[in-house]
Amino acid sequence: MSDLDRFLEQKGAEYAPFDTKRVHRIYAVLKPHLEELYAQSAKSKKDLKSLIPQGEEQRGFSPQNKPFIIHILGTNGKGSTGRFITLGLAQNGYKVLHFTSPHLFRFNERFYLANIPNSEFSVKSSSAKMDKKDCAKGGNAQKATHRIADDSELENAHLWLQRFPIIEQSSYFEYATFLALYLAKDCDYFVCEAGLGGEFDSTSVLQADLSVFTPISFDHQDMLGNSIESIATTKLKAMSKHTLLASQIYKEVDSIAKSIAKQKGAELTFVENIFDEVDKPTPLEHLARLPENFYEYSQNLAPFLKQNLFVAYRALESIGIGVDFASLTRFDLPARAQYIAPNILIDVGHNAHCAHSILQIVKQKRVILVYNTFFDKDANAILGILKPAIDRLLILEVSHSRILPKDKLINIAQNLGIEYGIFGGVDSMRADKDYVVFGSFSVVKTFMEIYNVAR
């Protein structure tokens, strides 16, 4: 076990006691030292202005001795939207860190690096950046490379942070955020996914250059409030001077965003949902609004992933960066409406909005739902939404302190009139049946561990 592993283990749960001021205290100490790191790295960057596409400097974007920060906030779709943005940036030759949470198997998964070789963190790293005229408007001058951070990179970041005694006060997620800030030192762009999101999130201490809000809906009500107005207000207060807002389920989110943008003097751009009718017989008016090769790239993606891809495209377009969908790297974030076998779909969705997205995918099919969830999720609402598609519910037994007690899940299934049983392992799964494995990251992780052993 590494020193970092031991440190994280003592931090315990992802959800530490809520302290709205703690991360600001820690960041105030780290900030000048991080700025020094970024300035040292910037000396090797030939042209800082190359990070500001032509015409964008007049809109308030300016060269700076730090990575260009794209902050991804919202409730659903943060990970996939951020990954699509990262793939677009990488295609243009930029060095990118994509910070996500939580992880499926290894902590390292939270730190996804594009165009940074493994040895890069020990040497000056920006000299290999492509000439921007070779990759303007998304031209693929060379194939982008992608990987997760290795153990030595994370250990180096950990050792750097340990120089500051105040870092001991950080929560698990706050510490992960600070590790990402160190790893971003040699990157051109830092695509940073918020945790719970909003004004009190640890990622919101950063001065983002661009904020991208995915759909905002009900989740984490114990921390964010019980109304969509409360949840949206808390999240949207973290917007930066340049903000994109994805199409929203609750239209009051739009008016709240407009009000906060006015207060902050922020430029707010709304991204339309062009996929509401994409499955109808004549979606030609929608296809005409898509960029070239977008349809071909996205045709095997789930409907919600198509929309997230479009939001990512619009985000990149807003800072003058194009995408060549004919050669864009395939989406590689696991467990997002992913088929691991022709009849097995896995997804880490864990709220009502995600349940509606699953219904869009399975359509008229009846599926066997392999499911469990945390006790703070609304399992009754989720199963109620999925009921029309459920042939049978199989409860996956998960070892986790926050998992919903089995008797409560059984009681919910009985009240909803859903046939249920206990998941009996991969050998019990039938080739002539369709399965959806749905729930939190811990649920999907447990299933995948069983599935991989069986294979």
Automatic annotation (TrEMBL):
<dbReference type="Pfam" id="PF08245">
    <property type="entry name" value="Mur_ligase_M"/>
</dbReference>
<dbReference type="GO" id="GO:0046654">
    <property type="term" value="P:tetrahydrofolate biosynthetic process"/>
</dbReference>
<keyword id="KW-0436">Ligase</keyword>
<dbReference type="InterPro" id="IPR036565">
    <property type="entry name" value="Mur-like_cat_sf"/>
</dbReference>
<feature type="domain" description="Mur ligase central">
    <location>
        <begin position="176"/>
        <end position="263"/>
    </location>
</feature>
<keyword id="KW-0479">Metal-binding</keyword>
<dbReference type="GO" id="GO:0004326">
    <property type="term" value="F:tetrahydrofolylpolyglutamate synthase activity"/>
</dbReference>
<dbReference type="GO" id="GO:0008841">
    <property type="term" value="F:dihydrofolate synthase activity"/>
</dbReference>
<comment type="similarity">
    <text>Belongs to the folylpolyglutamate synthase family.</text>
</comment>
<dbReference type="InterPro" id="IPR036615">
    <property type="entry name" value="Mur_ligase_C_dom_sf"/>
</dbReference>
<protein>
    <recommendedName>
        <fullName>Mur ligase central domain-containing protein</fullName>
    </recommendedName>
</protein>
<dbReference type="InterPro" id="IPR001645">
    <property type="entry name" value="Folylpolyglutamate_synth"/>
</dbReference>
<dbReference type="GO" id="GO:0046872">
    <property type="term" value="F:metal ion binding"/>
</dbReference>
<keyword id="KW-0547">Nucleotide-binding</keyword>
<keyword id="KW-0067">ATP-binding</keyword>
<dbReference type="InterPro" id="IPR013221">
    <property type="entry name" value="Mur_ligase_cen"/>
</dbReference>
<dbReference type="GO" id="GO:0005737">
    <property type="term" value="C:cytoplasm"/>
</dbReference>
<keyword id="KW-0460">Magnesium</keyword>
<dbReference type="GO" id="GO:0005524">
    <property type="term" value="F:ATP binding"/>
</dbReference>
